[in-house]
Amino acid sequence: MKKNFLLALFILFISFAKSQESIWTPEESMKIKSISQVNMSEDGKYITYVVREAIMEEEKSEYLSQIWVSATDKSFNEKYTHSKKSSTSPKFSPNGKSIAFLSLRSGKNQIWIMNSFGGEAKQITESKDGIKTFKWSSDGEFIAFTMNDPETKEEKKLKKEKRDVILVDKNFKYAHLYVINPDDKKSLKKITTGNFSINSFDWSPSGKNIVFSHQKDTNINTGFINTDISEVQIDNGIIKSLIKRPGLDSNPIYSNDGRSIAFVSSGGKIEPIGLKDIYVYSLENNQIKKLSETPNRSANILSWTPDDKNILIIESISTNSQVMSVEVSGDKIKYITSKENSKYPTGYFSSLAFNKSKSLMAYCYEDLKSPIEVYFSKSKKFKNVKISNINSELKYPELAISECISWKSKDGLEIEGILTYPKNYEKGKKYPIILQIHGGPAGVFSERFSGRPGIYMTEYFAEKGYATIKPNPRGSTGYGKDFRYANYRDWGYGDFNDVTSGVDKVIEMGIADKNRQFVMGWSYGGYLTSFVVTKTDRFKAASMGAGLPNLVSMVTTTDIQDYIVGHMGAEFWDDYDTYEKHSAIYQIKNVVTPTQVIHGEKDLRVPFTQGQEFYRALNRLGVETEMIVYPRTPHGPREPKLLMDVSERILKWFEKFIPKQ
Residue 119 is part of a domain; what is its CATH number? Predict the structure, then answer.
């Protein structure tokens, strides 16, 4: 009898353990590692990439990044760095014998080099302020990098004496170019000086010049909307201005023959909502040519093809991202990541790299059902070949069903979104639904792995029996310029109809319970959440994350002020009515929905006071509310333990107001 009882107890324990393993929790999602910064050797035989994982033992709550190297013939896939400090940005030398990378192991971010086949790394730079970005010269003799100007002796003295007063928008620490021979630390040479800050650069094929984009200050706002392009001679530091005009001109890349420069541009005018078309500048006749407009008109240039006849780019297309080839002399745009009988595959491509001939490409890929891994393919005949098994070998719980759906908004505009069903969904049964709104507004919900960690842990909500609809309303990227600009002077109106009609769609599908609706969003998603609760009481509870309910005070405190002004169409003192119309704080009296407010203590993008304004107003109005402040946190949690906390707090808030069945 006792033996049978112990056996039954053992079976019960095993069953319980297995059931615990099969449940999605924030902790479970944190086990999914991020992969990025892919680089390929010029001969196409080897791939290096970075794996980042959360470290949460005892008092630690941080991320650790390590470099891995794989062979494209799948003969090996190994971790190359093992330091307790992160190593990032690996780049093969042109001859493939060395890998340069950045690491914090000596305190500041420095350039290190290791043998491509293993061994101890050696430190190349000893910068006091840390390296930002770097690139090998085409012959591998030099490495160029950017670094912020160091403190002057006087500034150090004032800091030591506690008299280091900050003068806003003055005394910028510009990022400038340096060059070093990795075999000779004494060869370090500063290439650029002046009152400008460099944000991207490229070596000329000859190694004699570097082209770079730059801005007049170090403000993020300027970098988004107004940058120019210049070229510097390595031997004498002489700088020649190539493109100086209003708007964005950035990401310059030399052609293989060195005669032209490809770059992205807003076309000679400031476009604060965001526009990046592809242009080519001729170094021979100083002419600028605009290439064919890409589907989304938000291109990211990857490389020229070896014959300089095409430019390879990547950009968001609908709920996916795709690699394309754009003709320099013609008007053809070809999808590289294409399969037979389909224009392009679903899923999300990122971190692209090519071999020298551009015949092979390495990249990260994921879709709704598959976690991110490193893949490679031939460029002309695309086929996903998986190289890494960083996440695939994990025994994560079964996923809920997720799919891309579409519906018509109130004015007939077609809207797409991603629907995640409750775990173990039963047809005919109705479930509580969460409307999740993305940031931006020029963000996008893509078909990325639904179990990956994030501010909102999708599978955790599904595990708890909630359906989640994630719409891409007007203003989202991935659907072309017109769609991205469609919420100009219309925040809180057309987009409100887009997202709420998405909930209506899921109710019509017989999945969602109209009496158990909830809403949450971060950044612009937080903005729209705050506006939603002023316009309807259909949601039982709401959670506003890093939201901006007051566009007047937002413009005067955010670090991207022109983005707001660009969408509103004027400064607030010239059109106060528009700012008031689109600010939830001015409609606060309409709110009856219990609303949770979440914000980061150190947020400069959407300052902490935005959340505080809404919380205080709700509290004084008598609407049930609470405010959660994450310490040390900018525009979104950067510490894994704080990131895990978000979804659990939101679910606890929602369940407080869920009607009893």
Answer: 2.120.10.30
- The whole-angstrom separation of Cα 88 and Cα 68 is 10
Per-residue pLDDT of 338-383, as tens digits, reads: 754 455 568 999 999 999 999 999 999 999 999 999 999 999 989 9
Name the DSSP letter for residue 447. S
Instruction: Answer for the pair 546, 606: CB distance below 8 angstroms, yes or no.
Output: yes
Query: Which percentage of the chain shows pLDDT scores above 90?
Result: 93
In a domain, 494, yes or no: yes
Helix H or strand E segment including 190: strand 184-190
Do 392 and 406 share a domain, yes or no? no
Judged on CB neighbours under 10 Å (0-12, 13-18, 19+), 168 is: exposed
Residues whose CB falls within 8 Å of the CB of residue 320, separated by 6 or more in sequence, listed in order: 344, 345, 346, 347, 348, 349, 446, 447, 478
Q: 228 lies in a domain?
A: no
pLDDT in tens, 101-140: 999 999 999 999 999 987 899 999 999 889 999 999 999 9
Same domain for 410 and 390? Answer: no
What's the rounded Cα separation, in Å, for the pair 245 and 242? 10
Sequence-separated contacts (24+) of 642-646 with Cβ below 8 Å:
642/61, 643/26, 643/30, 643/453, 643/454, 643/455, 644/26, 644/27, 644/30, 644/453, 644/457, 645/26, 646/455, 646/456, 646/545, 646/598
H or E element: which one contains 433? strand 431-437
Overall domain count for the chain: 3
Whole-model pTM over 0.90? yes
Helix orientation angle between 494-508 and 524-535, rounded to the nearest 10 degrees: 80
Same domain as 385, residue 486: no
* Same domain membership, residue 488 and residue 592: yes
- pLDDT at 5 exceeding the cut of 70: no
Tell me: pLDDT of 3 over 50: no
pLDDT of residue 482: 98
Is there a single domain that holds both residue 435 and residue 366? no
